[in-house]
Design a protein that fits this description.
21 helices, six-stranded mixed β-sheet
């Protein structure tokens, strides 16, 4: 029995120890972040920042931060030029370095993860006004070519050997040195990552000499970091397959390749002094024509701004407004205009129209507009404006089985929906608020559709030079400027008036008016009742005063009557005493006079008491 008790006691102590120690172990592992040393070299757009005090940004920096969301790594940044940072990775002084291309030689020196962090294209870049170098490879003979001391060196040497080019290759430790030497024209050309050279307006990409994926390199003595990195990348690309594309578009929307004109673009510019722009009327905030015949909307500002960003000052803008989408398409086909806006419909419908569409200038949501009674139906009829093919193309692309009823204008489409002739219609999301505000007397509801609509520039198929120029301008301009422009014009489409306020808050205003009327009636009744009460009080006071006056009159009359008798007796006694010499009679008269005097004194005292009493009541 004793042995059994000892076993139970030991077991209890063992489990108690486990429960006491286990929370400590879990807490330590969950709160401790692993320190990871990052080799950070300044590279325009890719990795900006040269110290902890600098604001770091760029493609690689954002990628580092994204990976840390999955690994919990806490970074310690070590700064230097590319060559020194790469050597630190080999020596184990840093754990991670971004942007390393794969090579068999490197694979024996560092660890590569399973997935790249991006892809890069290497190209030969020359000065734009240097006519001694052309797309012919042999024009590089005898030239000085700068390159970063990196994997690009081998790609460049292989290209030169393959093309039998005898050129001088000069290597540099970081990109700043390469670009500085190029800008000073100490170099005839550079071999560079095309996406890594930012905003070189006077440079021209000749051709690509190779391409490769690049990776987040890991120190060879840190296999545990590699395992965590592989797991993080797997999770990242599973949850967000398009992450790298999003990152690339964010940081490389304006690159060297988007600054340098191609041969077809140069040819178009050399043969055109005007750019004729057709636009759709009555389609604000995108385009319209004011009373003076001038263009309005995004198109008015965007084309001049785009040309300015491209550095083109030799081309004048000429605008032509059209009421119908089909008229713009026809004008482009007949070479009456060079481009149209806003055009769309995707690849299929644009091909049928004989158009090549640029990248989207702006994308917007589309709203489905219907009456409150509409709850959805399998037999849906869309009311479509016959002047605007954008609406028709959207419905045919995303609702191919629905019916379409055409109407002359969008207002007619809304009237048809309100009358029940059509089930619904669509309105561009930037236009919905202003358009429905003009139809506030009608009861419409709207819901945002899942598919957005792209608004593009359209050019004639085969007009390669202009198409590339426009795409280049869209890329350089960026979406922030265009979106802000669109919002400004969208806000100006409709002015909020006092009547709009009244209509918007009609029920609330009616309730307030009713309340104010009730309050006014209540106050008026209170005032009337107060005046009536005051009048009654005045009347009561007058009655009381009259009664008091009557009482005074009665009192005075009674006093007068009461005083008359003793006064008469006194007068009579005095006369009697004057006529007699009899002392006894005189004494008798004096006694009678004293009695009458006391009576008069009593009456006088009563008068005094009455006066004091009335004075106290008045007070």
């Amino acid at each position: 029995m004793r042995k059994r008790i000892i076993q139970i006691t030991l077991s209890a102590l063992f489990f108690a120890a486990v429960f006491l120690l286990l929370p400590l172990t879990v807490s330590a592992s969950s709160t401790e972040n692993k320190k990871v040393r990052v080799g950070y070299y300044n590279n325009e757009v890719f990795e900006d920042g040269t110290s902890d005090e600098d604001i770091k940004k760029g493609y690689a920096y954002e990628y580092y931060r994204k990976i840390s969301e999955y690994t919990g790594w806490e970074y310690e940044y070590v700064y230097g030029d590319f060559v020194s940072i790469y050597q630190m990775l080999l020596d184990g002084d840093v754990d991670l370095v971004a942007g390393l291309a794969y090579s068999d030689e490197r694979a024996s020196l560092i660890l590569y993860p399973k997935k790249p962090m991006g892809a890069e294209s290497y190209g030969i870049v020359k000065h734009e006004n240097d006519t001694s170098i052309s797309r012919a490879y042999n024009t590089l003979n005898g030239k000085k070519i700068g390159v970063l001391e990196s994997a690009i060196v081998n790609v460049l040497r292989d290209f030169l050997d393959e093309q039998n080019i005898n050129a001088t290759v000069i290597t540099y430790n970081d990109y700043d040195q390469v670009l500085e030497a190029f800008d000073k024209k100490e170099l005839d050309a550079i071999a560079a990552e095309i996406d890594g050279i930012y905003d070189r307006k006077h440079a021209e990409v000749l051709y690509s000499i190779g391409e490769a994926d690049y990776y987040l390199g890991v120190n060879k003595n840190k296999p545990e970091l590699l395992a965590e990195l592989n797991k993080a990348q797997e999770m990242l690309f599973t949850e967000n397959p398009g992450y790298l594309s999003t990152l690339r578009n964010k940081y490389y929307s304006s690159t060297l390749s988007s600054r340098a004109f191609t041969e077809s673009e140069t040819n178009w510019l050399s043969t055109h002094t005007d750019i004729r722009v057709g636009y759709l009327n009555n389609f604000m905030p995108y385009s319209s024509t004011d009373e003076s015949g001038s263009p309005q909307g995004i198109i008015k500002d965007l084309i001049p701004y785009l040309l300015k960003e491209l550095g083109i000052d030799s081309v004048n803008c000429k605008f032509v407004g059209f009421d119908r989408y089909d008229d713009i398409v026809k004008a482009i086909a007949d070479d009456e205009i060079d481009l149209g806006f806003p055009l769309g419909g995707g690849l299929y419908f644009s091909e049928r129209d004989g158009l090549s569409l640029t990248n989207p200038v702006i994308s917007s949501v589309t709203d489905l507009v219907f009456t409150e009674q509409y709850k959805g139906s399998s037999d849906t009829t869309f009311a479509v404006c016959e002047k605007n093919n954008l609406q028709k193309y959207y419905i045919k692309n995303y609702y191919p089985d629905s019916n379409i009823a055409f109407y002359p204008t969008l207002d007619d489409c809304l009237a048809a929906v309100y009358a029940g002739e059509a089930t619904c219609t669509t309105i561009d999301g930037l236009r919905t608020s202003a358009i429905l505000s003009a139809h506030k007397d009608n009861s419409f509801s709207f819901a945002q559709l899942s598919a957005s609509e792209d608004h593009c520039f359209g050019v004639k198929i085969g007009n390669e030079g202009l198409l590339k120029l426009l795409n280049r301008g869209i890329s350089i301009t960026g979406q922030d400027y265009i979106q802000n422009l669109a919002m400004d014009y969208a806000r100006s489409m409709y002015t909020y008036t006092f009547w709009d306020f009244v209509m918007q808050y009609a029920w609330q205003i009616l309730i307030v008016i009713i309340i104010l009327v009730l309050i006014a009636n209540f106050v008026a009744i209170k005032i009337i009742r107060s005046r009536e009460r005051y009048a009654r009080e005045i009347m009561d006071s007058k009655i009381q005063i009259e009664k008091a006056n009557q009482d005074k009159f009665t009192f005075v009359n009674n006093i007068t009557n009461n005083m008359r008798e003793p006064m008469s007796k006194l007068t009579s006694l005095i006369d009697s005493s004057k006529r007699t010499d009899d002392p006894g009679k005189i004494q008798e008269n004096l006694n009678a006079m004293a009695e009458q005097s006391r009576l008069l004194i009593t009456l006088v005292n009563n008068i005094a008491i009455f006066v004091r009493s009335n004075e106290e009541q008045n007070e």
